[in-house]
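Budget justification aside, the reviewers requested a transparent look at the raw inputs and outputs of the sequence design task funded under Objective 1. We therefore reproduce one unedited record. The lines immediately below are the structure tokens for a 287-residue chain.
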């Protein structure tokens, strides 16, 4: 049943509302023309558009070979996004085990986890990796906030220049296994908060654009509800005739992170629940 939005009344709900409103200001800087120009100057647009065009033509040819009414699996804009993500993850972004010291560039030694500062926590970090420089003349500390990999979540809120949406259902398909208690505020209050942020962000938006955004909101809500239906159907399918979970359901394996060495991933609790193998290939440093 759709939830009826209700404004926050208690202290915890008001505090959560203020936190989400503060976080909603973040994406506004992405609309800064100067910052956008700086970002575009770094991105190899010719390469990305070229790869997208090649993939788009290949997909069109594949679709045409299957019949006159078959559409390509991805459109051109989809291919542009795929090429951008490929460049960002494979070329622009660098995976490392221990980060170099930001002061002297010397290697660092991991010291484990440390509690996040209020600022780090406000930006979504629930744990922080602490490193110390190996150079005796420096001994500086490096802090790396991290939301975690494969961890249970209570809330996953998406922010954009057009508002905020609770997309937890997209990332936590089975709340009983992968979710945490949602106790920051009642669900009806969270709906009110995200609706209120949408109103603030769209206050000066043209009428036609607001109508388009509302249509997108309804389409996304339908998608998110579909995830709930899929999760319920999967749970029902895992129950055998005796009413007990099937063996395959009990032995479900969590996905593991693929970047970083096995020891590093296991120390962070991000190696899934797969048994470690002595013959497993270790990623190289810096990958």
């Amino acid at each position: 049943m759709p939830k009826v939005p209700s404004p926050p009344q208690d202290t915890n709900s008001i505090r959560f509302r203020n936190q989400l409103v503060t976080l909603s200001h973040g994406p506004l800087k992405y609309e800064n023309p100067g910052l956008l120009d700086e970002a575009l100057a770094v991105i190899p647009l010719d390469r990305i558009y070229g790869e997208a065009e090649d993939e788009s033509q290949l997909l069109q040819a594949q679709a045409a070979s299957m019949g006159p009414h078959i559409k390509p699996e991805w459109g051109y804009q989809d291919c542009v996004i795929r090429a951008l993500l490929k460049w960002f993850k494979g070329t622009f972004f660098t995976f490392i085990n221990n980060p170099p010291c930001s002061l002297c560039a010397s290697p660092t030694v991991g010291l484990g986890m440390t509690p996040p500062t209020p600022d780090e926590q406000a930006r979504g970090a629930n744990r922080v990796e602490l490193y110390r420089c190996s150079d005796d003349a420096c001994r500086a500390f490096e802090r790396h906030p991290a939301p975690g990999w494969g961890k249970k979540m209570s809330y996953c809120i998406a922010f954009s220049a057009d508002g905020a949406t609770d997309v937890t259902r997209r990332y936590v398909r089975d709340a009983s296994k992968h979710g945490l208690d949602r106790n920051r505020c009642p669900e009806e209050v969270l709906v009110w908060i995200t609706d209120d942020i949408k109103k603030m962000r769209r206050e000066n938006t043209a009428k036609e654009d607001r109508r388009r955004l509302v249509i997108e909101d309804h389409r996304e809500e339908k998608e998110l509800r579909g995830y709930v239906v899929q999760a319920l159907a999967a749970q029902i399918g895992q129950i055998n005739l005796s009413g007990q979970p099937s063996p395959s359901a009990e032995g479900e394996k969590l996905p593991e992170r693929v970047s970083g060495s096995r020891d590093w991933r296991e120390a962070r609790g991000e190696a899934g629940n797969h048994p470690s193998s002595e013959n497993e290939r270790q990623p190289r440093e810096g990958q």
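Residues 274-287 have pLDDT under 50 and may be disordered. The chain has eleven helices and five strands. Computational costs for records of this kind are itemized in the attached budget.
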